[in-house]
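Thread: quick sanity check before group meeting

JM: Hey all, I'm pulling together slides for Thursday and realized we never actually wrote out the predicted structure for the chain we discussed last week. Dropping the sequence here so it's in one place. If anyone has concerns about the input, flag it before I start.
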Amino acid sequence: MSKQRLQQKQYQNLSPQQIQFLGLLQTPIVALEKRIEEELEDNPALEEDEQEEVSLSERSFQQDNSNDIQFQIEDKSESLSDYLKQQLILLDITKEQLFLVQYLINSLDDNGFLNRDLHAITSDLLVNNNLDVSEHELGNALLVLQQLEPFGVGAQNLQECLLIQLRTLHPEKHLEQKVISDYYTPFSNKNFEHLAKHLEIDFNALKSAYKTIESLNPIPGNGFSKNANAIAYVYPDFTVSIVDGKLETKLNKSNAKPIKVSKYYQNMLKETEDDATKKFLTEKVDNATWFQGAIEKRNETLKNVFSVILTIQEEYFFSGNEKDLKPMKLADIAQVVNMDISTISRVSNSKYVATHFGTFKLKELFSEAYRKDNGELISTKEIKSKLQEIIATEDKINPFTDEKLAELLGREDYHIARRTVAKYRENLGLQTAKLRREL
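JM (edit): ok, ran it. Output follows.
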């Protein structure tokens, strides 16, 4: 028989406006302008504040930067698709083949690979274009595509991509072709002993083969425009500078004009006697008032949170040296500003800060604490930096294992377990000792 229990639990239901505000808090500066434009379009009671004047020097600066950005984001680079199709003009192929090759070009991913099998593509041609094409015909069209530059396009995977380049650029390199075609797995795993034994070659010949293969282009689509209309830029939300020996911080503003509640709609609300009109206008004016206040509250919250971060990491912002980075968690900031940890997380997420030593994500300032033998508390980022330094200077013929790395870090008073070393190494994007080997 099941027992009945009486439990008391507290739940906090967020209102739609609270949810919207949390969304604004998380929105970085680069997306804020679009968010404001959307609100201006949706709510006629909200309008741009044309009365707010900008100083001559600031206006000049904005115009100069606007021109620079407009010039920078003009993407003159060519797409991979256009580059390949231009080469087709010089080929002596039938109209049917030309169509199939162009169809395959349009099926390539951004890296230049053809990730779909030919059977699936023939089905698409039948359904979408009412063309009954055999896999053999499509295969011949693929061979035409794979003859185009950059060599390696049209491959279904990296192994095939390397083989296409070897056969085209280095037809005399039979050893290299055999390594990729027959021993790709031990090649990828840098199992030098296995390769030398089965290929019956010495390490010098193997080293030469690796050198040739590593000179190939693993991503033939690199260097081409992925989107002709946009380039990714980092727009910092905060700027920290040193002025007269003191740190000065600024919350950067988006290019959107200041907003205000429309006086016209406010007056109309006061004058109207129609209930339906009054209800409509009340909703729009209230929403406009809330949104204007939410933007101001967002900016104020960002300033308050970053001010505390700046105080804690003051030494680091002066030097730029990771050894000066203090251990800092979201909870540390939340306690000072008396906000929820999730709010601090939203502030730090997707935000960038520009300094005299570089621009980086705000969340990179957060790290766990590690206590050294002498009792000193340091950031785990300092340990990661030392780990990176050790790996960068190791003997690549015989790189350090994670166990050895833990031992070497221990000599620097960083006593961490092997599994922790592996975790930090993976966080840094560094491979295992076996895959860091070189001949």
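AS: nice. The mean pLDDT is 85. The two ends are 71 Å apart (CA to CA).
JM: adding both to the slides.
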